[in-house]
Design goal:
Layout lengths: L1 H5 L10 E2 L5 E2 L3 E3 L5 E3 L18 H21 L4 H12 L1
Antiparallel strand pairs: 1-2, 3-4
Length: about 100
């Protein structure tokens, strides 16, 4: 799905993932043998379990909503721009 490839709200199969406290995870992830998704390309002592928004506590959902709203705002700023222009804009916002 091309829309999911360009949307910062998505991660693995088009669904955003969050740590237990509601922080949006945008890095690499891996699936455990029990089916859980964890942070990091491969498992380590620092890997954290990842959750879908609906599976977070109410407190964590409030924090996650801030990340979602910020990502949606970035998408609005990029409407009408070419892919290259959108990337350049986001890169300049990072510095």
């Amino acid at each position: 799905n091309q829309q999911n490839q360009q949307n910062p709200l998505t991660n693995m199969k088009g669904v955003p993932h969050f740590t237990k406290d509601g922080t949006m995870h945008e890095g690499e992830s891996h699936k455990m043998p029990n089916g859980e998704l964890h942070t990091g390309k491969s498992h380590s002592d620092s890997s954290q379990r990842l959750f879908h928004f609906k599976d977070l506590s109410k407190k964590a959902q409030k924090k996650a909503q801030v990340f979602i709203d910020e990502a949606k705002e970035k998408n609005k700023k990029d409407e009408g721009k070419s892919f290259t222009e959108a990337v350049e804009s986001r890169m300049s916002d990072s510095y």
